[in-house]
Amino acid sequence: MVSQAKGGCKVCKSMEHTAVYHNRKPIKRMSIKKSSDAVKNVFGKSDLKIPRKKKTPRASAKDSAWASFSRYIRLRDSLATTGTIDACVCITCNERGDSEPKPYAKIQAGHAIGGRKSSILFHEEITNGQCDYCNAQGRFGLSGDYGNYAVALIKRYGLEHYEELQRLSHVIVQYKTKDFIEIKQRYDEKTRLLLA
């Protein structure tokens, strides 16, 4: 039920509003074209792209180092598990009994220990070829499948060495830009030798 205004409207004698109701200015509505022009005028561009922050040289170097390291790990494990660079057997799928090779495009460099902290980010023993489903986070994957990953590494290196690798995750390493550049060069070279 609409509450009645105190005293009613002096213009139309309605009890549901006051005279202020008749003095309101109408809301100016814009068409879609006009509203996009308003956005264009405010931002200076016609599209609604959100401006990205420019990456720092250190962040760019880290991305390049990771790309080289990831390429090396995926190629290393592809050659080790299938003998080709076209497919790879996922380390965690294999532990679950699925030894079907996955296409190289579906393979990622997955970490056995979560967090991707600096000390383990570029560690070859902790990082292996893992399919995108096992490595994907959240509802789209198995979030690393750390249980099966641990079993596979314990079989490969033994329990003591695996526990030592786990302790590494608590070590913090501060990489500088030049460190990332050196890591990129090292893994580019390793990849070149692997493919030779």
Indicate the radius of gyration in whole angstroms: 30 Å
The major beta sheet can be summarized as: 2 strands, antiparallel
Strand order of the largest sheet: 1-2
Helix content: 40-55%
Distance between termini?
82 Å
Characterize the overall form: elongated
Order of helices and strands: HHEHEEHEHHHH
Structural class: mainly alpha
Uncertain segments: none
Average pLDDT for all residues: 85
Number of strands: 4
Strand content: 5-15%
Q: Give the number of helices.
A: 8
Main attributes of the structure:
two-stranded antiparallel sheet; 8 helices; two-stranded antiparallel ribbon; 47% helix; elongated; mainly alpha; 196 residues; single chain
What report would you give on this structure?
The radius of gyration is 30 Å and the shape is elongated. The chain has eight helices and four strands, in the order ααβαββαβαααα. It has helices at residues 32-43, 57-82, 91-95, 118-121, 132-135, 146-157, 159-168, 177-195; strands spanning 87-88, 102-103, 107-111, 127-131. It has a domain at 70-195. The strands form two sheets. Strands 1-2 form a two-stranded antiparallel ribbon. The chain has a two-stranded antiparallel sheet with strand order 3-4. The model has no long low-confidence stretch (mean pLDDT 85). The chain starts with 31 loop residues before the first helix and ends with a helix. 47% of the residues lie in helices and 7% in strands. Helix 2 runs parallel beside helix 8 and helix 6 packs across helix 7 (159-168). The protein has 196 residues and is mainly alpha-helical. The longest helix has 26 residues, at 57-82. 23% of the residues are buried.
